[in-house]
Fold this protein.
Amino acid sequence: MARHAALLLSLLVVGCEPDSDGPLLRVDNAWIRTPVADRTVTAGYCEITNTGPTPVAITGFTAEGLRVEIHETIDEGGMMRMRPVPRLHLAPGETASLAPGGKHLMLFDFDPNLESARIRATIDGGGGHWIVFEVRNEGWR
Ligand SMILES: [Cu+2]
């Protein structure tokens, strides 16, 4: 009986693997720009690769204590503007690059004292993928 309980517990621990309970994704170079002094809005960047055999759609990002939107930067007659992107589609093997000047994560209510932040990508159809972003003081153009 005790052995049975121990087996069940180990299965539960494996089932609670914290980084991903969704499809196979690899995330590289995840970082957040240090906010401008006295500001709590900033941007996050990373490269997300679908390493699995099926298409993946990321429908949003969530984090404790802050609000996250997916944005893209567009050139409207010479004016750079940002607009929300509802989801990120990733074919098998495809990489989505969230980078300065392009798609990015817009972070609201960001605590400027943080050195890193855990943000979870929500996957269409269930599950998610936690990403640890390093806060970097890269300056703003
Ligand atoms: Cu933005």
